Amino acid sequence: MKTYLIIMLFIAPLIGWAQEQPTVSGVVKGSDDTIISGATVAVKGKPISTSTDNDGSYHIAAAPQDTLVYSFVGYQPQQLPVAGKSTIDVFLEPMASDLEEVVVVGYGAVRKSDLTSSITSVKGEDLKDFTAGSALNALQGKANGVQITGSGGPGASPRVIIRGITSVNGSDPLYVVDNVPLPPGTNLNFLNPEDIESMEVLKDASAAAIFGTRASNGVVLITTKKGKSGKTVFTFSGSTGIQTISKPNIADASIYEQVYKTRYTNDDNEPIWNAEDNLKPGDGTDWWKEAVNTTAMIHNYNVGFQGGSEKNVFSGNVGYFRQNSQYDVGYWDRLSIRLNNEYTLIEDIKLGIDLAPRYESWTNTPDLYADIMRMDPTTPIFRPTDEWETNVFNNYARSKHNQVWNPMGRLARLDEKIQHFALIMTPHLTVTPIQGMTARTQFNVNARVQNAHKFEPEFFIDNLEQGERSYIERRNDTNIDWNWTNTLSYMFDLDKHYFTTMVGFTMEKFSTYGLLGSRYDLPNSHPDLRYLDAGTDEEKASGTDTYRTLMSVLGRLTYNYNSKYYLTATFRRDGSSAFPAGNRYANFPSISGAWRVSNESFLAGQDIFQDIKLRAGWGRVGNQSVAGPGLYINLIGPADYVFGPEGTRYVGSAVSQVGNPLLTWETVEDVNVGLDLAFLQNKFTVGIDWFRKRNHDMLMQKNNLLVLGYPMWDAQMWANIGSMQAQGWEFALKYSDNSHAFTYDLGLNMTAVQSKAMELAMDAPILTGAVYNDLAIRNIPGEEISRFFGYQIDGVFQNEEQVQQHAGTDATLIQPNAQPGDFIFRDTNGDGQLNEDDKVFMGKAFPDFTVGFNARLGYKNFDLVANFYGSVGNDIMNLPKVGFYSGENGQNVYADAFDKAWNGEGSTNTFARLSVNDLNNNYRIPSTFMVENGSFLRAKLLQLGYTLPSSMWSNGQLRLSLSAQNLFTITNYTGLDPEVASGGTALESGIDRLGYPNPRTFLLGLNLTF
Amino acid sequence: MKKIFIALSIYAGSYLFTSCEKFLDRPALGQENLDTYFQTEEEALKQIAGCYQGVFWDDWWQVAQFYPASDMATDDMWMNNTTQSQSSYIRTAHYQNPSQDDLLKNYWQYRYKAILRSNVVLERLPESPITNEELRERILAEARFLRAFQYFELVKNFGGVPIIESLSMPEEVQGVTRNTLEECYAFIEKELIAAAEGLPERSKYPSADIGRATKGAALGYLGKVYLYQNKMAEAEEVLAQVISSGEYDLLDNFDKVWTIEHNNSIESLFEVQYSDAVGYNLGGRLSVITGSRNDSGWSWSGPTSDLENAFKAAGDEIRLRATIIKHGDDVWNDLGEAAKNYVIAPAEHKSARINRKFYIPHAQRAVPYDGNRNKLNHRLLRFADVLLMYAEAANATGNDGEARNALNRVRERVNLNPVSSSGEALRQAIRDERRLELALEHQRLYDIRRWNDSNGKKVIANLFGPNGSFVRYNTEISTDTFERTNQRENSNKGTSFNESRDLLFPIPNSEIVLSEGSIVQNPNF
């Protein structure tokens, strides 16, 4: 149901006196030259006002020294001194942060001024400047309370955290597009950002509770563009650009040789050196240069139209997006179409059809940065040509000194791609049987077919770098989700009491049909043979269906008294198939209220504040995001063995899942208090919120003791194991103004939230963050999540004497295997041994606060868009650094690794000696060596635009733009990308695993409207 | 019309709501449910087959790789591979505290996963409606045998471990502690005795069931369990039962013992069954893991010159050639061209030697060779072992005559002169024989850990440590060119051996941490 609650805003009558005055007249127009009728024109400080006529004209009595105030719903008020003039024509600017804006809430919409809960609304216009496959990348830094952590790579999905983490079970919010909740794990890049009219982030439970079981991480509502009656407007926008990634400071073969050999000689071992000796600077293979292209292209084109008549409104867009990876392989592109139509059949009955077909094509981007950086630089790309074989994949060289597979060989062999075909169909019928009542039914089908291809050639480079057999795989996953939403709303008022009620009933079914076929031993690797039919051995097929269903009743009551006191109550009851019978149903209520102080009579007449509103809310939401159906069941899978004299296969079976029969939802309870202010003629708006979200019965896949013998890896089992809490505040400030030829639009927002694990299963800490067979992250009950624990390094042993002095009270050495040049690990508890009990808190993965700064500045026909995003106070475990300074397992190192390593008394107190055996575990256990400050401030977008003056072309609008995305990042972090490195899951974030960095992108753009 | 529409949708909505339980009932599809299993004999048989799979699992990394690794920790084997990162094995092979290593974690984890499979059978089969009581009893006995096998493997390596006898929920094992070594052995003994009662003799199984646990296997393992506890009289008695059962004998030729043709031979009490079936991971992997890097192998583990010298000192050519392949030799009993002047490149292999027992002649190799389809069954308990265990037990109880008879049966097969000594000299002869007969068959580590030398110390403590005889042989005495030249694996292996620590392996560190210390680490790790 969509209830558009439209209440006129009555501007409090100005109190003053009447007097004979000269008259001022003129016309009020919008900045787009449209005539504004009904605009209010008032004399400042006097009880004189009038409205404009149908032609926008007005007459008002005003003295020459008076100031006139022009205002109209949806436009910024303007004040102009009369200054003795008798004719004043005024152009009003549309309001940037208008309280009259309609904000979409779950199963309906309200005026922004009537909101009682915490919702951030971002217009599609503000998401368009940033060129990315997913609107979430553009949303970063624009919505307070929302932390978005990007990851590079074509089509990658960023991590979204709304108001901290209250569940170990993923932080993804529920995405709802045009009233259709999408299944968990949805990568929002399926949606063309150009199609978006607005994005509403429902942050507190009083807003989100209407979405019940899936709303515990917040809800992102997306409304797509709809038609408008009037002249049909055509738009074209295009941007094309290049992406680059900075090359890290990796050693060449000569430095590599120094480090490599020194590791052995320092341990009195003979180096296992398989290359020429005494290599010179610049020698060897520069793997980065070979594998990573300096530039990769990105394209984004859209053609759209919007228009309609009284009987029929329509909107359509065709978009094409393509992003290449930095490798020769790997790209993602998307062709998407959206057609939204609504027909008025007969009076009060409207039939709408929204259609969104889509085609996507991916070729997999390899996860290769780590290998490229670690690969032995003394190894050439290819073996000598006289050893070449007809199978080209055999001709790549094996690393001479480590186990890294030849990255160029991997790129050459990679043949994985996915095609998506999808169609979203949404017929909907709206009936208005009596005044104020609307019934709406919507049936949505979201059908997706994914066709994945994978081929692996047969090749032999070495015993340990070979594919014994060629392999072909075709995977076909079909998803059919349907969703039936029925709402009935009724709006009425009694005197100054305004009521809106809504009741609804929904059914949803999410179905997955999987089919996988594979074969081995293709005749050869010719592209024409890379099909299942060509495989000659081990013909295999597998597949199953999974279904998840949800059935719900829901309702909402909103009430306001005289636009001063607001109350909203919502209720939802969900039944879900994810849980065993008996645990299936749950109720999710919420209540919230607001007090518009600015509408109180005691504040009438002041013109400093245009809006003062206090909000408070409470609600309960749920989370059912478990990995699959039937997690409460003990399952059986195949476990074959062999019996008989001939060694015959015997079909066996064994337990494959131990289920948890007690599984049920997790529930988040949330309180929110907020204050909204608008002042100085709405030039400034401020929003401040404080919130606390507390999770109970948290669902989690927990590592259990291995002695249980569960078939799941590390004995992991889903359970309702505890409680988490996120508490914090957020702040948003906007300033909009214009003077002379300048326009300003500035926004600053900050979010500070601390997420804590309150109770965990059996009160035990949850340890994650595998670092060299140790676990570096401890999630301790009552403490913040994802904190790093390890050994405190107190410098480097400079001589044997220091090694001997580092001893317990009984003179036994604390580090018996240490020698000069090794790290001194602190025996924190002073018990004379180094063990688990000595680990100290080293840092935390989540920031103290995140900050977004957005500016849109205009001067005449030029405009500048600047978006900054920052994260402050988080630490990163720079795990790659360890290998790049130790050269462990013969991997390549940073160019300064040899110079920085300890090489004698007094040389350094921060880096250990090079060692092949590393008996002291300098670089094998989590320690303060690995932890760095991960704070950063990134210039996400700087865009300079130029709009062709209407004097040159009056039939439409043409804007050219030049933009730089991720142009620079201010940080002390020494790894590839502090943003990517800070990602991860709730309980395991902030460990740098060398993921695909966010590229720096330069784009040229063109927008055309006519 | 509007009213009709509203009425219709309310009607439809309420209709659907009444059938909501059905709408919301969505189990996992395509998978069977344990709680409704064990309805038929076939289902019970499938489950016990799954328990057998847990003996060695279906790939190299769960438990199989641990067996050569245990030999690397003895005087019989080097780690051997000197071209690759040795980090997976070196801390086990060289006594450098492997508590953080996946090698041990996987071994521990997959032994307990296999125990759960037996626990499921033992808990659920008694309630099954099947009517073939004989079959039910046999399967239960098989499950008990396999569970005892799993616990024995754990106890040998880690000492006392938590005994888990059921499918439990996590809260039921909160604060679980290790059972003592005595409790564990008592449990294993009880299980093996019960298994021996319920299992048929090997000859009573139909041919299609070859490979299943037998009464002989249960008694053989029971004998070994007694022997490891120094319960010599009990060991002697139960092993005598096996010998006199008439079910087992030595093969006539030692060369046949580790060949595909003699899988499940008369000498076999228990072995891992392998198949060359395509696409099911049912073949053995140790041939590849321990093979020469120059012949599609991974060269993890290689015999020492010290072991070779032991064969030579005994004048034992027959078993030497069937146990050790040395670089440049023609491989014994492989007629293929590739086996002539066989390459085990000294630069890539510490000792330029590999294990002949797991080596598969080229003509019999699965194609591709690395495809986990090799049919050489892995012998876990064979009759020669039973004879030597019996000899050891009989010698300890003073029955030297019986001991000599058993010992000389083993020696006779390889044309060695009978031993006529007695007492402590006979004890040494039995120990020497055990090393040669069962070399590289994963017996040595546990033997040298349990045997005391005449100086009162453990044999292993005399071999290893800074002044250990094996360490001094390699660092000072050895003239073996291969081992002395290739120092990419350091010849001082075992110098860091610590008698107060290294008689057991450490429990995986993650288990100590996850249990919050209720599972206590072995001393000094």
Automatic annotation (TrEMBL), chain A:
<keyword id="KW-0732">Signal</keyword>
<dbReference type="InterPro" id="IPR023996">
    <property type="entry name" value="TonB-dep_OMP_SusC/RagA"/>
</dbReference>
<keyword id="KW-0675">Receptor</keyword>
<keyword id="KW-0812">Transmembrane</keyword>
<dbReference type="InterPro" id="IPR037066">
    <property type="entry name" value="Plug_dom_sf"/>
</dbReference>
<feature type="domain" description="TonB-dependent receptor plug">
    <location>
        <begin position="112"/>
        <end position="219"/>
    </location>
</feature>
<feature type="signal peptide">
    <location>
        <begin position="1"/>
        <end position="18"/>
    </location>
</feature>
<dbReference type="InterPro" id="IPR023997">
    <property type="entry name" value="TonB-dep_OMP_SusC/RagA_CS"/>
</dbReference>
<dbReference type="InterPro" id="IPR036942">
    <property type="entry name" value="Beta-barrel_TonB_sf"/>
</dbReference>
<dbReference type="InterPro" id="IPR008969">
    <property type="entry name" value="CarboxyPept-like_regulatory"/>
</dbReference>
<comment type="similarity">
    <text>Belongs to the TonB-dependent receptor family.</text>
</comment>
<protein>
    <submittedName>
        <fullName>TonB-dependent receptor</fullName>
    </submittedName>
</protein>
<dbReference type="InterPro" id="IPR012910">
    <property type="entry name" value="Plug_dom"/>
</dbReference>
<dbReference type="InterPro" id="IPR039426">
    <property type="entry name" value="TonB-dep_rcpt-like"/>
</dbReference>
<keyword id="KW-1134">Transmembrane beta strand</keyword>
<keyword id="KW-0998">Cell outer membrane</keyword>
<keyword id="KW-0813">Transport</keyword>
<keyword id="KW-0472">Membrane</keyword>
<dbReference type="Pfam" id="PF07715">
    <property type="entry name" value="Plug"/>
</dbReference>
<dbReference type="Pfam" id="PF13715">
    <property type="entry name" value="CarbopepD_reg_2"/>
</dbReference>
TrEMBL record, chain B:
<dbReference type="Pfam" id="PF07980">
    <property type="entry name" value="SusD_RagB"/>
</dbReference>
<keyword id="KW-0732">Signal</keyword>
<protein>
    <submittedName>
        <fullName>RagB/SusD family nutrient uptake outer membrane protein</fullName>
    </submittedName>
</protein>
<comment type="similarity">
    <text>Belongs to the SusD family.</text>
</comment>
<feature type="domain" description="RagB/SusD">
    <location>
        <begin position="267"/>
        <end position="524"/>
    </location>
</feature>
<keyword id="KW-0998">Cell outer membrane</keyword>
<keyword id="KW-0472">Membrane</keyword>
<dbReference type="InterPro" id="IPR033985">
    <property type="entry name" value="SusD-like_N"/>
</dbReference>
<dbReference type="InterPro" id="IPR012944">
    <property type="entry name" value="SusD_RagB_dom"/>
</dbReference>
<feature type="domain" description="SusD-like N-terminal">
    <location>
        <begin position="67"/>
        <end position="227"/>
    </location>
</feature>
<dbReference type="Pfam" id="PF14322">
    <property type="entry name" value="SusD-like_3"/>
</dbReference>
<dbReference type="InterPro" id="IPR011990">
    <property type="entry name" value="TPR-like_helical_dom_sf"/>
</dbReference>
